[in-house]
Design brief:
Elements (H helix, E strand, L loop, with lengths): L1 H23 L4 H6 L1 H4 L3 E13 L6 E6 L4 E6 L11 E9 L2 E3 L2 E3 L2 E11 L1
């Protein structure tokens, strides 16, 4: 009976740890782009390098593109407080959005930033 309880406890712990790793880990940009419908309106974290950043003067919206080696995604920042410069390594958490869907394909797929961690160059 003790060994059965021990086996069940170890299996339960393994399931919990693997579930936490999936929640805490970063999503690959290619996976998000390939499965946009699955990720739509869900919170994800991406990790990568900023390839470009821009904003419109006098508007609170800033944009930057992040590449993780599997793909590249635009990030929309509404805070306007800080925007990472090209070459910065960032970890961004946000919600996956698109502007429209045409013939089943998302148009304007982007990540709406909720939090940003700039790790430097």
């Amino acid at each position: 009976m003790k060994t059965l309880f021990g086996l069940v406890a170890v299996c339960a712990l393994a399931v919990v740890i693997s579930g936490c790793a999936g929640v805490l880990g970063s999503s690959r940009i290619a996976d998000v782009q390939r499965n946009a419908g699955h990720y739509a309106d869900r919170s994800v974290t991406i990790d990568g390098r900023v390839t470009n950043s821009w904003g419109v003067p006098l508007l609170p919206y800033k944009f930057y593109r992040v590449s993780d080696g599997t793909g590249e995604m635009t990030v929309l920042s509404r805070t306007g407080n800080r925007i990472p410069v090209q070459g910065s390594h960032v970890r961004v958490n946000g919600v996956v959005r698109d502007v429209a869907v045409l013939a089943g394909q998302p148009i304007g797929l982007h990540l709406e930033e909720h939090s940003l961690d700039i790790k430097g160059r």
